[in-house]
Design brief:
Aminopeptidase; Alpha-Beta Plaits; 8-stranded mixed beta sheet; alpha/beta; 4-stranded antiparallel beta sheet
Length: about 400
């Protein structure tokens, strides 16, 4: 079967099922599941793939690996993440989240549905002829936590025999009908940092008789990012941003315990390798004058996603075939973390940014409860993923 015939099948199947895919995406959006709890989502995907001939292997209570194709030819993998975020859905759509405090605020419902759509199309390609190689689908749990589900799937053999891997990630700053492509690093490294200070408290009228950890916390908030900005090459792009600061309850009491937590992000993988040691040293130096004890909990998260040039070329060709050359959108490296990076430390591949913004509409941000997507992105993502699988397998 020629490539053109295979791609025609992909387009026909996805177009025929587009309404069903939109319905599924809305269902997933209404029933979001947190990391490692994506059992309902996994059940839905598993049932749909099993019906059309994929060999499905569950990876635990949530997540699955599915295989299709015969012979010993190249095997290309496609990956989607399943989990939602602990965020309130503030939209008023009929399919808004039915789970209080949980929402698909990063577009993983689109990722899951698009990959399932690609799987349905590829099953038809296989049924009507033969795939040029073999395809593996990875429906991964727990992308939103550290450590993420990618490392678990790798440990379970998800990349065994895989020659190349691809994924798409929703980008609400890019119009629907476009995909952002970039060779080399496209995301940043991301780690989690928590610092707990302890010291003798006391009355705010006598701070000199205490170990004023509230003041020390304040120094950490500003000084740690400042020190790093002067001790590292600016091209590293290190960014320390705090998300939580807790100390005391009364305005006239210096507390004995305080905590500070946030993320450490950077553009450079080399700097990432020794960032933990550097952070620990600088924290100790900053708080030393105040006599407090600092306990640092540093959790290494993910390295940057580094797109292989040949894989970007294959993904770009797929975008051209689905959307035309106007479908390519320029994109830059971000400081966002993505555990897809772990797959790319073992096999070549690429991540593209799937445009979800309605042209002329609102530009939303991910990880926010008001995120809305142009639902045409679901079918586009399905076609692009299936097309790159045909071309790379």
């Amino acid at each position: 079967m020629s490539r053109e015939e295979a791609l025609a099948i992909v387009e026909t199947v996805v177009d025929k099922r587009e309404d069903d895919l939109v319905d599924l995406r809305r269902d997933l959006h209404a029933h979001p599941e947190l990391s490692w709890q994506e059992t309902r989502t996994t059940d839905l995907v598993s049932h749909s793939l099993d019906e059309v001939g994929w060999q499905v292997t569950r990876t635990g209570d949530s997540g699955l690996i599915a295989d299709l194709g015969d012979g010993d030819g190249p095997r290309v993998a496609l990956r989607a993440d399943l989990d939602a975020l602990p965020v309130n859905d503030t939209t008023t759509d009929p399919w808004h989240s039915q789970v209080t405090g949980v929402a698909h605020a990063c577009g993983h419902d689109v990722h899951t549905t698009a990959l399932l759509g690609a799987g349905l199309a590829l099953a038809e390609v296989h049924a009507e002829g033969r795939l040029p190689g073999r395809v593996r689908l990875l429906f991964q749990p727990a992308e939103e936590v550290m450590p993420g589900g990618a490392t678990r799937l790798v440990e379970l053999g998800a990349l065994d025999g895989v020659n190349r891997i691809f994924c798409l990630h929703c980008d609400p700053t890019i119009d629907v009908g476009q995909v952002g492509l970039r060779e080399g690093p496209i995301t940043g490294a991301a780690d989690a940092l928590a610092i707990r200070l302890t010291g003798s408290g006391g009355h705010t009228s006598r701070p000199h008789l205490t170990e004023d950890l509230t003041f020390a916390l304040g120094k950490l908030v500003t000084e740690l990012p400042a020190v790093l900005s002067r001790r590292l090459d600016p091209r590293v792009g290190v960014s320390v941003v705090w998300g939580r600061l807790e100390a005391g309850r009364a305005l006239n009491v210096i507390p004995e315990v305080g905590t500070l937590a946030g993320t450490v992000r950077m553009l450079d993988a080399v700097a990432w390798s020794d960032m933990e040691e550097r952070i620990r040293r600088h924290v100790a130096e900053i708080v030393a004058p105040y006599g407090v004890e600092a306990a640092v909990d540093y959790q290494r998260g993910v390295p940057p996603v580094v797109n292989d040039a040949a894989s970007v070329a294959l993904l770009g060709r797929a975008v051209d075939e689905v959307l035309g050359t106007a479908g390519r959108a320029p994109t830059t490296q971000s400081l966002g973390g993505e555990d897809f990076a772990w797959y790319l430390t073992r096999v070549p591949g690429a991540m593209g940014r799937l445009g979800t913004r309605e042209p002329g509409g609102t530009t939303y941000d991910i990880h926010q409860g008001n995120l809305r997507v142009d639902e045409r992105a679901t079918a586009i993502g399905a076609k692009v993923l299936a097309t790159v699988a045909v071309g790379a397998a």
